[in-house]
Amino acid sequence: MFGRRSRNSHPLVNLDQVIALFGQAAGFWPTQPEVAVLAQARFADSCRDAGVRPVSTERFAETWVRLAEESRVRFCIALAALDVEAVRNRLPSLCSDAADAGVCLNLLQEFAERLELLTADMIQQSDVRLEEFARHFCAMAGLTIEEETAERSAARLHEINFARLMKEADAARSSAEDRMAYLRKLQEEQEATRRPRRGKW
To answer: What is the pTM of this model?
Structure first.
């Protein structure tokens, strides 16, 4: 049921596939009317496909109203990963001790709120930030990235972590102008190592 697994029993996932889905979703969701209704329907469909009972409409609405606007967009972008079988098949194990998909809903909420520096515009405009978003998601969901060791995945995420880079920029540069110049330089260096997005929504 859980597909291919890595040696440490975490499902294997193709990072390029997740990146492509997130890139497409970043352009899709901000343009949609009735986002809450559509997001709930996609989440519920994925839960049913994975054999997990969806949360009630009221439970989803309680989570949705607590999310800020940007967090809602990140939440919706993250839902795109559920189109990947290895990700979707992770849901039963995450919710194994629960009556419904509430645990997974909480994880998505926490994920969307924690990455407050990664706005939808930033994810759309920068392949490095898109890769970072995808890597954060894989780490949150307990997924192993194909052709990478756990150490390599952790090192790459640390390398491109925007929150860490911001802290370093603040510590290294006294003025706002110098700080932005420093971040632009780091961004350019990271873009040279980016993983390009692929596919269509």
So the answer is: 0.82
